[in-house]
Structure formats: structure tokens, C-alpha cells
Amino acid sequence: MLGICRGRRKFLAASLTVLFVPAITWIYLFAGSFEDGKPVSLSPLESQPHSPRYTASSQRERESLEVRMREVEEENRVLRKQLSLAQSRSPSHHRGNHSKTYSMEEGTGDSESLRAGIVAGNSSECGQQPAVEKCETIHVAIVCAGYNASRDVVTLVKSVLFHRRNPLHFHLIADAIAKQILATLFQTWMVPAVRIDFYDADELKSEVSWIPNKHYSGIYGLMKLVLTKTLPSNLERVIVLDTDITFATDIAELWAVFHKFKGQQVLGLVENQSDWYLGNLWKNHRPWPALGRGYNTGVILLLLDKLRKMKWEQMWRLTAERELMSMLSTSLADQDIFNAVIKQNPFLVYQLPCFWNVQLSDHTRSEQCYRDVSDLKVIHWNSPKKLRVKNKHVEFFRNLYLTFLEYDGNLLRRELFGCPSETDINSENLQKQLSELDEDDLCYEFRRERFTVHRTHLYFLHYEYEPASDNTDVTLVAQLSMDRLQMLEAICKHWEGPISLALYLSDAEAQQFLRYAQGSEVLMSRHNVGYHIVYKEGQFYPVNLLRNVAMKHISTPYMFLSDIDFLPMYGLYEYLRKSVIQLDLANTKKALIVPAFETLRYRLSFPKSKAELLSMLDMGTLFTFRYHVWTKGHAPTNFAKWRTATTPYRVEWEADFEPYVVVRKDCPEYDRRFVGFGWNKVAHIMELDAQEYEFTVLPNAYMIHMPHAPSFDITKFRSNKQYRICLKTLKEEFQQDMSRHYGFAALKYLTAENNS
Fold this sequence. Notes:
In the N-terminal section; belongs to the glycosyltransferase 8 family. By secondary structure, this protein is an alpha/beta fold.
């Protein structure tokens, strides 16, 4: 430290030299340029040899002054070069031979805290924050459990990714739900220079389950206490964050603060910005012991290696056991125990400037922080009310949060140039597949869509369902975009069983959907509906990808492959479960057909029985589906026979057949090459037939298509000739693939297509 201070003094002296030597020199030159009180010109152009004042001595004096001036300028140039070298070397000479570092001017230094003097007793008079090296990996640990936390953490991650310039390694302590959601999200997000590791939170429950906790975070709110034991033993330091954090700056700035720790400081924390630990919020309020106002644990810097050497595990356990004898339970989860340990061992904590954790709790005094510090860095929504918290500046903070909440996550797939990244097999395979496509092909965009990886967030809302124990349960599967959102409530009223939906939305639309769902009593009363968000990318609606996502994430042995525009008949769920048993679907390859009808009326008195439906057909209120524009699609269902049928009957596949069917969950996926409008269901039914599925029509089942405005894709199909040409090309290629895969049996599809 003494060496650093001496270096600073040398730096200051050299700087003063650079500033004052030229000034003194010019004063001297300027004073010497006067003779008898009158200025003497030093310019050769202005020198006049024939002037009576021009003498040999004055010329020599002028020449000597010019030489001296050049010498001073050369000395200054050398000094500036030395200072520049000293500046570039001093922050990183202990850190290896990396080529570039972020300086304080580039935004990673904590210059505000040095100017404001916020960290009392923690900053050295001559301690400058070392820079974070360009490709240094920053480690971040987050405890995340359940559906809501998995959704909230995405906004935190977006805010970090938006500002970051370093590789990131997220350590996620997650339960089984959060791991499934976040593993899929990051795998499909494909952000360069980001690594994700998961740690089983359920395995850690036994470590903290003995601590009674009243906080809404539950048992997971105590798991930050065991990070020294959970995270890899070779990990020396980590930034620990709550899921309700929003970053407004590069996280590298916070990472750089580790270099300010000295002595036995192992915890970096911001002071609590409420009076909670002062015990004066209400009568008989008795908080856990804390040092002054205590510290908030929404943002923590942990020096893991030193904590392990100090036997942190034993330290916090002994403290918790002692305090629980009188306190009985924690009120603020891990925060109470951290503060009790710090109360006894104040030397452990390095107090971070308040702008690293601006707390927006109900009783916050955070205005005292951001009134003095304009450059806020981290916002913490540490109230159960979250965005609805009472705060006079809440609109400002809410807008900052909403910026990242609705920000297009696809834009965060930025390369960190100059930093080596781990080989990603999925990314490499994708690039290889795309490189094999011909960009001059008029159908290139269609072909490219087949390989596009769409960011996917599974179970966007809470999902809770256990399939029936009799193995007859059926899930309704459908996909939709924002313009079909109004169908959800009606479908939920018609179908009481589980539903799996894939929604094609932008980030902003996903938040609109969330608000719509949370404001709907019908949707909020249903916990057996899985909403899977597939984020928008590209120019086509990836209808078959969406169907595959919805199919893949069902928990029942059977599924009803429907579309969002259809309302199933009342009681269809129970009827299908009985049909599954009756037709032995478990042991046979059958596709049970639910006959499809349509109405042109937006307001329909929905038929409650087959007899009522037949009456409406006769009156012209209902029609067989697409009879007037695409008869071939459903003609093989044989509606004439269905009118009088009382038992299931078998029908044969025909060209362009696309019924809605009930199948086992192990049926083939939809072919992704078909996007937008055209042949997306036809190809799937063709593959079922190629795999020798038997098509059986259910005599007492029906579904009705509700009217809506034409989709954007069908409009493109009708108006764009190239669209139709490409669709025809994809059909031919699909049929060729079928012939190669299924051999002689698939020749009938080519023949049927030619005859249709």
C-alpha cells in the first residue's frame, strides 16, 4: 500500500511538471521578448535585419530562447509518454499479461464512490480501483425456485447482458421446476460467452430446513447461507443476486470492487435502507441483532476462498442456533442471520456504496442515497408488492425495469469480440446447417426457418397438475399468437382437462399476455394449463414448431391435437377418456378423429348435444369445416355416415386429409419445414398413415371452428405467387423424403397427389 501511495505522489508531481513547466517557460520567453518595455518579435518573418534595433546580440538571444523552448517541449513529450505508460501498466501489473483492461473512464471503475466518499472507513486515501480485464469471467450466483421466480430472473439476466462486456458464468441454485424452465431458455437463447451451471436446491433443503422462516421466500430464502459449500471449491469469488434485481450498469464495475477488500473483509454488502433493524417501525417490533441499520443481502460480494478458511459454515450455524433460542424464527430469511454474524464480527464486511443496492421496500429510506448519487447502478424491488410498492419516485424505477422486461432478448445474442468462448455444439451444428443452404435460392427464407432456434420459455405461468391414475388422461394441445388470445377463456370453459399451449409472442407481447391472464378469473382459476412462450424471430409463423413445443410438454399419456380457433363440445374431455379405454388406444396405433364443423356467426348458441348440432346443420347455422373452400381436407371423415353413427367407424387416408385427432403422446412430431399457411397438418396426417395408424371417427364427438379475421400468413399465401411456388416445392421434397424413409408403401402419396 505504501508503494502505491508513493507511486501516486510521483504521478502527481509528474503531472504538475507537465502543466507548469510549459507555463513558466512561456512566461520567461514572453518576458524576455521585451526590450526597453517594447516587444521583440521572435518570428523570422517579422525579423528585420536593417532595423536599427536589430543587433547581433538580440539575434543570438532569440536563437538561444528558441532552442530552449524546443528542449522544454521535448522534455514535456517524454514526460507525457512516461505518464501514459505508467497509467496503462499500474492497474493490471498484478493481473497477468492480458492485452486490454477497462479503465475507470470506460465505466468499470467506481469513481463515484471515491468522489462522494460514501464508504466510510473502507476506502484508502490513495487506493484506486483496479480494472477488470477484458476477458475475465464474472461469476454470478442466483437462487431461483418455482414458476414466478423463473420468470422474474429473466429480467435480471437481460439487464446484466445488456450492459456486460465480459464473459459471464451463472451459477443457478434451482429446484426441478426452475431448472427445466431455465435450462430450456438458455439452451434456446444461445447467448455467446455465457455459461450456465445448475445446483439442485432440493438437495440443499436439509441444510437449512431446521431454521423457521416467516419470509415469503420460504426455505429457498435461506440457501445463500450455504453457497460456500454448494459452489465449486475452486471458485474464489462470486456476486450473489436476488431475482428481483435490475442492473443499470456493467456488472464488471461491481466485480472490480472485490479488489477494494482488505484484511479479513469477505462480505460486500450495502447498508439496509429502512429502519427495520433499528426496531422502531411499530410497537413491540423486535428484529434480529444487526450493526446499526444492518445490511441488505439482495446484492452480496462473497470471497468464497477466505470464507471457507474462516469456517463460515460453522460460524453462521452457531450464530443462528443461539439467536433462534430467543427469536424463534427469521423474519427476513438469510438476511437476519448474515446481520447477526456481522454484529459479532464487524470486520467481515466491506460496506458497498448505496447505489449498488437501491432498495424499494415499503419502509425504504433510499431517497437519501439517490438524492446524492445520480448514477444509480442496481435497483432492488425487495417488497412483496414489487412494482406496486409505494415510493414517490417509483415511476422512474418502474420505467427502468419495464425497459428490460419488454426488451427483445434476441438482440442480446452479441459476440464478445476478442474473447475466446467455449465450443457450443448446438451453435456449431446450426451454423453448419445454415451454411449448406443456398442464399440465392428463392425459397431460402422458407428453408432457413426449419433451422431457426427460437428462444423458448416453458411454463410461463404457474402449472400444477397430476394426471389421472387410471392412465386415460388427455391433454388438449394448441398454438396461438396474440390475435387469438381472446379464445383462451372460452376454451377453458369448454375443456376442463389439462391444456398445453405454445404462444408465439414478442417480449413485449409476453408481458401483455401475462397482464391479461392475471386479470382473468377464468384463467387464474386453472392451474392445469401450461403456457409455453416461443419468442418471435424471422418472418414466418412457425406453426409446426409451436405444435411440437406444446406436444413435448404434456404430462398425460394421450393428447388431443386441436387448433386455438376451435371450441370442443361440452364434456368432450370425459368422452375422450372413455373412448381411450373403449378403443384400447394404449395397445393399438389409432388416431381418433373428432369431426370438425364451423360457424360464420361470431355469437353462437353452442349446441349441447349431437342432436342439437344436426338441427343447426340442417338450418344452415353450422357447416362441415371448410366445405366451401377446402372440401378435401375433411371429406374422408364421411359426415353423412357420422350423422347416424352410434359406434366408432374406420376411414381411410386420402390426399390432403387433415382431421383433428387424439393420439398417444409418442406419435411423430410435425414437420418443421412447413411454416405459415399450407400443408402443416396434411403432412403430419400423411406421416401417421405411413406409420400405419388407423383413423377412427368418434360418433358422439364434435368441435366447432369460430370465425375470425384472415391470418397474415393466409393473406400472403393468396397474394404472393412466390409463396405458393415455395410451398409446392416443399411439398414435393417432403414426399421424396417420405419415399426414402418408408419405401414402397409411400409411393401412394405421390400417386394421390398427382391425381388430386
